[in-house]
Specification:
Order of helices and strands: EEEEEH
CATH architecture: Roll
Structural class: mainly beta
Strand content: 35-45%
Helix content: 10-25%
CATH class: Mainly Beta
Number of strands: 5
Largest sheet: 5 strands, antiparallel
Radius of gyration: 14 Å
CATH topology: SH3 type barrels
């Protein structure tokens, strides 16, 4: 039996959004689209997003269509200060 764990995002969390069918032109197209930052929580499970360079996304996204971006440290570092972190 699998459990569904509720997930909530905080402001400035990096998230990926689910690709729409229009964006998926082939079977091998990515299921998730680029990282965005959570700008604010609008309602229960609804979020406003912004791009990494600060542009605001007008649409409100439900948490069902979002997932955490686990490469947050690397992306934050490269977006802010230049070269990526060496491992």
């Amino acid at each position: 039996m699998s459990r569904v764990y509720p997930r909530e995002f905080k402001e400035s969390d990096l998230v990926l959004r689910r690709a729409s069918e229009a964006n998926m032109d082939s079977k091998l197209a990515p299921k998730w689209i680029r990282p965005y930052r959570v700008k604010e929580m609008v309602g229960k499970g609804a979020y406003k997003l912004k791009t990494l360079d600060g542009g605001v996304i007008l649409r409100i996204w439900n948490m069902v269509n979002l997932c955490f971006s686990y490469c947050s440290r690397r992306l934050t570092r490269t977006a802010v200060s230049g070269p990526p972190i060496s491992a």
